[in-house]
Amino acid sequence: MLPEVGSLWLLRLLRDIQLAQFYRPILEELNVTRPEHFDFVRPEDLDGIGMGRPAQRRLAEALKKHRSGLKSKNWVYKILGGFAPEQKETTPAPNSPLSLPEPEGGLKCLIPDGAVCRGELLGSGCFGVVHRGLWTLPGGQSVPVAVKSLRVGPEGPVGTELGDFLREVSIMMNLEHPHVLRLHGLVLGQPLQMVMELAPLGSLHARLTARAPTPPLPVALLCLFLRQLAGAMAYLEARGLVHRDLATRNLLLASPRTIKVADFGLVRPLGGARGRYVMGGPRPIPYAWCAPESLRQGAFSSASDVWMFGVTLWEMFSGGEEPWAGVPPYLILQWLEQDQARLPRPPLCSRALYALALRCWAPHPADRPSFSYLEELLQEAWPPEGHCVRDVTEPGALRMQTGDPITIIEGSPDSAAWKGQNGRTFKVGSFPASAVTLADAGGSPATRPVHRVSPAQGERHQGSVDGDRGKAKLRDLPPARGQRRNVPLQRMKGGAERAWSHPPGVPGSTEGHWGRRGFCHPEPQGGPALPSE
Ligand code: AMP
């Protein structure tokens, strides 16, 4: 729990000179809330609250130092005060770190500058760099952490970046969920540092795209990650928060089987009765992950997060491919809206799961499932597990040995051949249904239906929300990353090739409109205009 942010400076100052016990009397009896209020405090007043003269001298000295350093540090307190949600005051126990708001348990605190040492660089984000670190607690124990430091230019921190950084802190310090990255505390130094739970295995995107000999992630594990993600997002949804940057790059692996939602820099509280957040300015947005209403009007809501969940699902089952790779932003919106095109079903993704993704991509936000409903839908689309009851060596069939764990991707009681993944080899393919026993089928060969979406329904939607036009749309879909684009150029407005190689504001760039991590500014050329933030 944060002491009132406006009086944080006082608490820090008193703690530094071992006079924290006078925090409340100074605040409440002498009414000092700002450093200049001490100008009106007389020694007798301090005598009156029981502060001895040597302590008063220490205080005067510390105040002098504080005031001289205030000019350079003032922005931290001011801005954090501006972003912090409702705060109540507490008096910290002597010798404990100052606590940040702690609504649902867990330690959140202001961490002294010297208590964290930074090590290896883990990555860099929009407004800073992230290092592995070691946080030494007051009791002497060391905790491995990740430390995100605010990037500081020669003139000090850049306004927007500082704002986003502090907004991220103020949002994160109120979150507590097993699949949401935890903020341990904040170092009010220069640079400002966020001390977070370490996700030692890095981002899910990096794991998905890791090359051999790293084995691919099994389908069953991807489904588990989806369930964890839906749970975390249902939690944010219930708290009226919209993430706005849901993607595998922002899911971190805390352990081989645990993901955590991270990067709360774009998170916003949903305002108003419509439960939407409308961007107030031209800022980069992760275009290929965004719902049409976000691209067109800058409107974000839990329903647009659900859209992004669908894209994240697609990324997971595509081995970390970039959605709409190589397609200029304005074309994405056109394809989504006018042509009703959708990302195609990845081979590893069952029809049932793809049908769920298509529900996330419903054109109208109100038609998309909520995250809590998605949790139920995921349960229904869960791929059954079984194990192999005889060696399969037939040519063309998925090779398996007796006892191999098998995840069923497609299968129905009336088909003799099923599709699945061998949990031992990670290979995917078709195999005789009779070779596998389902885990919950009491030991007899599998005969129950294993997907709840009819094959016809799944296929009909592939690549399009418009079943009849699905096949035509598939031809228009972007190629995999690294391949030459094969999009119908006659359909591109305003010379897409030109726009591709020379995006506005990036003369001569060959990277199209895409910035780092698939972010780009809204397309000015025949594309949607977003209001200013
Ligand atoms: P961000 O600024 O949050 O986008 O983080 C930039 C990069 O740093 C991420 O893509 C991760 O690779 C890495 N990173 C961020 N936070 C953590 C963490 N808590 N544990 C491990 N790596 C992290």
TrEMBL record:
Q: Name one GO cellular component term.
A: cytoplasm
Which EC number(s) does UniProt give? 2.7.10.2
Q: Could you tell me which residue ranges the Protein kinase domain spans?
A: 116-378
Which residue stretches belong to region Disordered? Answer: 439-533
EC supergroup of this enzyme: transferase
Keywords per UniProt: ATP-binding, Cytoplasm, Kinase, Membrane, Nucleotide-binding, Phosphoprotein, SH3 domain, Transferase, Tyrosine-protein kinase
Write out the annotated subcellular location. Answer: Cytoplasm; Membrane
Q: What is this protein called?
A: Non-receptor tyrosine-protein kinase TNK1
Organism equals Leptonychotes weddellii
| Gene for this chain | TNK1
